[in-house]
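User: Can you predict the 3D structure of Transcriptional regulator with XRE-family HTH domain? Sequence below.
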Amino acid sequence: MDNIGEKIRLKRLEKRLSQENMAFDLDISQAAYSKIELGQTDLTVRRIFAIAEILEVSPYIFMPKPKYGSALAQEFVYKTLNKLRKFWSSIRKSKNGLSQSEHSHTSPQ
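Assistant: Sure. Here are the predicted structure tokens for Transcriptional regulator with XRE-family HTH domain:
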């Protein structure tokens, strides 16, 4: 069920609210609210959050599932960690190089 309107309708019925109640709380007509549940209206994120607040649920339950999953790709994580390791390693090397060059440039007094 990817239809946001259908998900909203089911939650509304579960909470035993009428379309009129929802429309009143959203400050829209009942006909306009009906179009939301029928999927005939494109919803803004703001409107989804307002509906979720009325229904006392997380707005994210109405959102479609991610196409490619919700977890980070393992390969992406490994590549990023490897880049960070190389970056920090280069910083350590440059610090060590500076420290050695400082010692070689100081002359005994």
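The chain has a mean pLDDT of 83. Residues 64 and 70 are 11 Å apart (CA to CA).
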